[in-house]
Amino acid sequence: MRWSTSRVALSLVLSLLLVPSFSHLDNDKVYAEQVTVSGHELEDGVTRPIYSYLDAIKETVFIQSELDSDENGEPDRIAIDIMRPKETEEGLKVPVIMEASPYYEKLGRGNESQVKDPDGSGTNEMFPLFYDNYFVPRGYAVVLLDMVGTNNSDGCPTTGGFEETESVKVVIEWLNGKGKAFDKEGNEVSADWSAGKVGMVGKSYDGTLANAVAATGVEGLETIVPIGAISSWYYYYRYEGIPFYRNGPSGLASRVTNSKRVRQCAPIHERIRVAADDETGNYNEFWDERNYYKDTGNVKASVFMIHGLNDYNVKANHFSKWWEALAENDIPRKLWLTQTGHVDPFDFRRAEWVQTLHRWFDYWLLDIENGIMDEPILDLETGPGEWETYSSWPSENSTFVRVRLAPGNESLPGTLTTGPVNGEAVQTFTDNPDQTDMQMVQNEFTVKEDRLIFLSPELQEDVRLSGVPEIDIRTVVDKENTNLTALIVDYGTDVRVDHQSSDEGIRTLSNRTCWGESSPTDSACYLETELTTIESPYEIVTHGWLSAKNRKSLEHPVFLEPGKNHRIKWETLPEDYVFKKGHRIGIVIAGSNKGRLLTDPNRAAFHVHLGKSLVELPIVGGRKALENALGETTPTTATEILSLVESLKEDGEFQNEEEARALTTHMAAVELYEKKGLGDKVAKHMNGFMLLLDQQRNNGLISNKGYYMLKEEAESLIESGP
């Protein structure tokens, strides 16, 4: 329960203040004046620094686990470094902000690659990043955990395996009074200073560990803040059956292992290499163990996610799969999406980030009602340094629009249309394993033998894409297997975030700003950064790849039958992007993508049936918005809706075939009346179709995607009139 009262100065009292809530007062005034937890004072609605950073207690503790990840017959001990206000020795209990990481010995954390022992003296003088400097004076403890097998922890890393998750879980349990821990001298110690509430934060591998342990449902983990974090290691090293490169998990495990134990852990690294199965690229038990979003039903912690839409290290499908699973399980959540690559918000939106993180931890770890959960759920960077807030992701107004791949004209090699494509047009291309994505998209008005390209007319209005686009082609291939690439491209000169630069959209400056309090060995001052931009004639908005043998299953390959017509469907990476007026939307279809993934040597030839091939674009405002931008209005026909029902049935969007059959029966009658020009009967049966569609949705018999696609098409047919 959360309580509020007018602000008073607090001494170190040890009881919780429980006073009546001023629910009828102005919210901003209540948030700014309240005090809620003993030992913490508020100013402008957030905890203020009242504890000495210089006097804070620093200690290294080793938590006993039941792991034996290095198989030496001894249980692994997990090392943590703790910083907490000295008043915790006098009875003050504080919540914990924890960052678990494999990078505290080498590689380092943050833009300045900070490690715990920068001078190699054997003493951890440094607490990397600003969390200790900023939050310890505000009445938090900060815990930096060495992941199993790294730095001062025992054992061997397993690249996302059970052992790594367990090494974090045992620490959270110890902070909640369970298990045993020892100091450097071997004396048993307890966390009697801990309030039992833990919040985890971290970028990349660190945020991945937060996702992993949250998926166990461990008690005491109240919130996580994963930044550019992995939600499934399969999708870190693979995309729909294609490895990005070889020996990834084993190589990473070796790279982060404690320097003195790399040789000892070599047999574990070799087992990882074999189990990952680079040869096939398939999903197996090894990868299933490292899939966290499938276990979202266990999550009890709130989640504040930050991700780069142009992050091609931890790609954007990591946030979208985790985000969708969290939504299905009603987990409290918040999201920032940026146009940068794999960059920490401390380096692309520093002041707003520190303020927001401060309020987030105050709310979830100290029960301070500051209104953060009443604010829009999404902060979205819509242009370089330009941010908008929204109530959902994807947009609640986003609907999948089927855009068909159509033949070219006198100026374009291929076109895009929302209407039907007459005839049996076919375009061909051959996989070129040496082709990069830049080569795929350049010279957009030119026919090339190793790619197909389809362009919209110049847009008459802005178009916002929000969600996960899907590619759906009908093709004949002359080989049993091949790679496929799809690119969605914005053709039009504009100033954009330079996310393809080495710093992925930021530049490090020479001046520093300070965030918290410093000590002689640990500064709170960090080099400033600025956003970098580039003027470019096009932008690859998103990519999607597929190994054709995995088109039906990642676990059980189904090879193509050469010469047979196949339907091949796959997703691109998620995106939220505005195509501006005057620009063109481009769709590129090709084979292998050199530089992004391992290429296929088959050089397969594709014969793509246009009209039957399409992309499903999640467009804000749906078909009407896209058609207004394209300058075309194509009335929907009953035949098109019948085709859509069949496609949705193939994709499993109905609970069973009976629902699809019921809709097909309705539409078959409409199609007959439509051909006879009986407009009144078309209208009557379409109203019945809409009622049936609503019933199926209300009873959970059709997916949301299928419902909204059919609803929009049906409304279009009804509006076209007799």
Would you mind describing this structure in some detail?
The chain is an alpha+beta fold. The chain is 25% helix and 27% strand. It is built from 16 helices and 31 strands. The protein has a twelve-stranded mixed beta sheet with strand order 8-7-3-4-6-5-9-10-13-14-15-16, sandwiched between helices. Strands 17, 18, 19, 22, 27, 30 and 31 form a seven-stranded antiparallel beta sheet that branches. A four-stranded antiparallel beta sheet has the order 20-29-23-26.
Give the helices and strands, then pairings.
Blueprint: H1 27-33, E1 42-43, E2 46-47, E3 57-64, E4 77-84, E5 94-101, H2 131-135, E6 141-146, H3 162-175, E7 181-182, E8 188-189, E9 194-203, H4 205-214, E10 221-227, H5 233-237, E11 238-239, E12 242-243, H6 248-256, H7 262-276, H8 285-289, E13 302-308, H9 317-328, E14 333-338, H10 350-366, E15 378-383, E16 386-390, E17 398-407, E18 414-417, E19 426-430, H11 437-441, E20 452-455, E21 463-467, E22 470-477, E23 483-497, E24 506-514, E25 525-531, E26 533-547, E27 565-571, E28 575-579, E29 584-590, E30 605-609, E31 614-620, H12 622-630, H13 638-650, H14 657-676, H15 679-698, H16 704-720
Parallel strand pairs: 5-6, 5-9, 9-10, 10-13, 13-14, 14-15
Antiparallel strand pairs: 1-2, 3-4, 3-7, 4-6, 7-8, 11-12, 15-16, 17-18, 17-31, 19-30, 20-29, 21-28, 22-27, 22-30, 22-31, 23-26, 23-29, 24-25
Helix pairs in contact: 3-4, 6-7, 13-14, 13-16, 14-15, 15-16
Q: Tell me the total number of β-strands.
A: 31
Q: In percent, how much strand structure appears in the residues?
A: 25-35%
**Secondary-structure content class:** alpha+beta
Catalogue the unreliable spans.
1-36
In which order are the strands of the major sheet placed? 8-7-3-4-6-5-9-10-13-14-15-16
- Overall mean pLDDT stands at 92
Q: Indicate the percent of residues in helices.
A: 25-40%
Separation, N- and C-terminal Cα atoms? 59 Å
**Rg from Cα:** 28 Å
